[in-house]
Hints:
Elements: H1 8-31, H2 33-45, H3 52-82, H4 86-109
Helix pairs in contact: 1-2, 1-3, 2-3, 3-4
Amino acid sequence: MNRQLRWLPYLFAAGAVLWLVELTRFAAYLVAPAGREVLKQALIDGGITRNLDATLTTESVLIFFLGTAAVVLHGAAYYGLKRLRVWGWITAVIVSSVRSAYSSSLISSSSSFGFSIRTRSSQPSE
């Protein structure tokens, strides 16, 4: 493998670990009654007023499915790149493409969801 690309498999391994941590954190939210209330309140703030439990269950299953898919793809990219297999490179390109599309959609939709970046000048002075 090219000397400059030796770190690439480890980057995908770190991505798999990151997704496992995120899935664990989300599972902790679902297990804790206070966490479920926070998630239900987020749904209410988002405009969902009926079938909160069904909506929360559906979204939770979707989040776990997508998170597990991300872990599997990152792991496949790691093992494929470590063994210098073509499918490893293909998986790495797929993971990178999805991540890039996801990042650009977050940037373009950030103004519609009301996210704002606080600067030092916008913080109250003490």
